[in-house]
Amino acid sequence: MEPIIQVSNVWFKYPGEDPSVEYFVLRDINLSIGIGEYVAIIGPNGSGKSTLARMFNGLLLPNQGEIKIAGLATTTLENLWDIRKTVGMVFQNPDNQIVATTVRDDVAFGLENLGVPRSEMQKRISRALEAVGLSGMEESAPHYLSGGQKQRLSIAGILAMQPKVVVFDEATSMLDPQGRKEVLNLIASLHQSGTTVVHITHSAEEAFLAKRILVIAKGQIQLDLPRDELYKQSINLEKWGLEVPLPVQLHQRLIKRGIPLTDHVKSTEDLVMQIWKLLSKT
Amino acid sequence: MNQLVIGQYVPGRSLIHQLDPRAKLAFVFAYMILVFFANNIASYGLLLFFSACTIYLSQIPLRIFSASLKPILFLILVMILFHLFLTKGGQVLFHFSFLTIYEEGVRQAVFISLRLILLVLTASLLTFTTSPMDLTDGLENMLHPFTRFGLPAHEFALMMSIALRFIPTIWDETEKIKKAQMARGADFESGHIFRRVKSYIPVLIPLFISAFRRAEDLALAMEARCYRGGINRTKLRELHFSTKDLGLVIIFAFLVLGICLLRE
Ligand SMILES: Nc1ncnc2c1ncn2[C@@H]1O[C@H](COP(=O)(O)OP(=O)(O)OP(=O)(O)O)[C@@H](O)[C@H]1O
Ligand SMILES: [Mg+2]
Predict the structure, then answer these.
(1) A258 and A168 in one domain?
(2) Is residue B88 part of a domain?
(3) Is the Cβ pair A143, B131 closer than 8 Å?
(4) With pLDDT > 70 as the criterion, what percentage of chain A qualifies?
(5) Which of A23, A190, B26, B54 could be cross-linked to A18 through a Cys-Cys bond (beta carbons 3.0 to 4.6 Å apart)?
(6) B164 and B192: one domain?
(7) Can you give the residue ranges of the ABC transporter domain (chain A) (predicted)?
(8) Which residues in chain A are contacts of B221 at CB distance < 8 A?
(9) Are residues A39 and A99 both part of a single domain?
(10) Which residues contact B146 (CB under 8 A, 6 or more apart)?
(11) A111 and B222: CB-CB below 8 Å?
(12) Are residues A86 and A210 in the same domain?
């Protein structure tokens, strides 16, 4: 399968910084993401996650190496609009990505930029608002929406543009638990409908919702594993200053206490099953 | 933010709400000029009557209009005092040591305050009955002919709508920062004016920093959504002149005629 995102030997540093190697935010990144994948990226603060994400739609361009989106290189200026149409991006702060004074006008913003005809626009807007559960709020002012609703509005604005990939750059980190749940559910249903999802997060718990997890630290991809594989080694996440999921900590402590569990569990469900079995034996 | 801000849109379906924003903008602009031609009781009466009719037709509660007048009450008061005591002419109505009030002074005081009230009511009517998006769209559309002379009509309208979008957000943030500074012992209420202005510095600095961060974020988000200026852009909102808007032209013609006949 041809990858939708192909990153080859990418180096990046912000302008003005020292040109020596240690100032490169990203160092020799190689990565490919296939159509329909659900990938999480975790890593400590300042490890270059947002920088990498911004390269996926040409907001930043690599100093060396190449990024191709659906076969189009981001460095070619003519490709830029097709690339941004293909890769939608939801940012962290719910307030700072809404342009218009009503919900409907905000969803329209991207479509207006693309030059979508008006009749088509109306169809797409109502479909997008329905997908995120904001139908009936077309006339509301963004200011009166909750954090979760604002993020869902941003997602609607991107869905209306019919992207193949949606990148969430810590899109849940400023939300309350309710809003977070709303957005995570939406991410899951996007994945279900075949959209490629890249979810950048600090939370191991959220990352483990994805099928494949990348760990980025010090400007490099340290691990790139399917969810189940990483779960087995996730006690190592501590090494990069990341939180270890609670079930994994529990598992390790139970073993230390001499409880006869297998060395590795694949998931929370797996752990629960093993504990159940133990309990029913005794 | 509970209190009504001047210029806030009050949603509705009244006749005035339904008028084309361009027609309203043009009418309000022309009407405001016309207000300056009124110079006696009859002509002011006509304008007041007309404004009262439009307010009635807008179906917006009167108290919202009176709230919009509140911020200019002080200005009106100053104007009244100024004219009462300083304008000379006509009969002397009142005399006490150095204070003399002339007939002309009273006239001017009444008319100037009426003029101010008319102007504010008209501007309020426009913003109360026209959504910000319609207003900026109307403005962009009306300014469009000037783009060939280098006027950035699209950018101007976008700037305005972004400002309108962020005013409540930044207002809330101001309140939050104020409370945070108050919790640290800042005092915004007491002291003379200089001191009070100075006490706002610790509010303004974080506010500015955050506003710049917002601007950066927003610019990035807009670019990510394929924004590239006004070229090849389509619009969700369409503006339509209707027969109602034509009515405005006729009404205005009558008003001009009326003022010409009634003024001295
Ligand atoms: N505009 C910029 N100019 C200069 N340096 C920057 C800029 N943006 C980020 N950096 C630096 O680049 C590095 C990587 O930043 P990036 O935002 O990609 O990290 P991140 O992994 O997204 O971190 P976080 O988890 O805090 O969001 C950081 O050291 C940061 O200080
Ligand atoms: Mg980041």
Answers:
(1) no
(2) yes
(3) no
(4) 99
(5) A23
(6) yes
(7) 5-243
(8) 89, 91, 96-97, 99, 154
(9) yes
(10) B153
(11) no
(12) yes
Q: What is the 3-state secondary structure (H, E, C) of chain A?
A: CCEEEEEEEEEECCCCCCCCHHHCCEEEEEEEEECCCEEEEECCCCCCHHHHHHHHCCCCCCCEEEEEECCEECCCHHHHHHHHHHEEEECCCHHHHCCCCCHHHHHHHHHHHHCCCHHHHHHHHHHHHHHCCCCCCCCCCHHHCCHHHHHHHHHHHHHCCCCCEEEEECCCCCCCHHHHHHHHHHHHHHHHCCCEEEEEECCHHHHCCCCEEEEEECCEEEEEEEHHHHHHHHHHHHHHCCCCCHHHHHHHHHHHCCCCCCCCCCCHHHHHHHHHHHHHHC
A173 and A257 in a common domain: no
Q: Are residues A207 and A269 in the same domain?
A: no
Please compute the mean of the pLDDT values over residues B11-37 and round it to a whole number: 92
The domain tally of chain B equals 2
**A279 is in which domain, residue-wise?**
245-282
What's the domain count of chain A?
2
Of all ligands present, the nearest one to the C-alpha of A44 is 1
- Over 50: is that where the pLDDT of B1 sits? no
Which position has the higher pLDDT, A123 or B90? Answer: A123
Residue nearest to atom 30 of ligand 1 (CA): A46
0.85 surpassed by complex ipTM:
yes
Residues within 5 Å of ion ligand 2, judged at the Cβ atom: A 50
How many angstroms separate the CA atoms of A31 and A173, rounded? 25
pLDDT tens profile B220-232: 999 999 998 888 8
**Are B243 and B199 part of one and the same domain?**
no
Interface of A with B (CB under 8 A): 54, 57, 59, 81, 84-85, 88-89, 91, 93, 95-102, 104-105, 108-118, 121-122, 125, 139, 141-143, 154, 157-158, 161
CA distance B137 to B143: 10
Q: What are the backbone angles phi and psi of residue A67, rounded to the nearest 5°?
A: -120, 130
The C-alpha of A135 sits at a distance from chain B's nearest C-alpha, in angstroms, of 17
- Shared domain check, B212 and B116: no
Asked whether residue B145 is assigned to any structural domain, the reply reads no
* B150 found inside a domain: no
User: How far off is chain B from A122, nearest CA to CA, in Å?
Assistant: 8
**C-alpha separations of A218 from A201, A204, B62, B188, B195 in Å:** 16, 18, 63, 46, 49
In a domain? residue B226? yes
Residue B204 lies in domain: 155-233
**Claim to verify: residue B119 and residue B189 sit in the same structural domain:** no
- Residue B224 sits in the same domain as residue B242: no
Task: Give the pLDDT confidence of A4-54 residue by residue, as tens digits.
Answer: 999 999 999 998 767 777 788 999 999 999 999 999 999 999 899 999 999
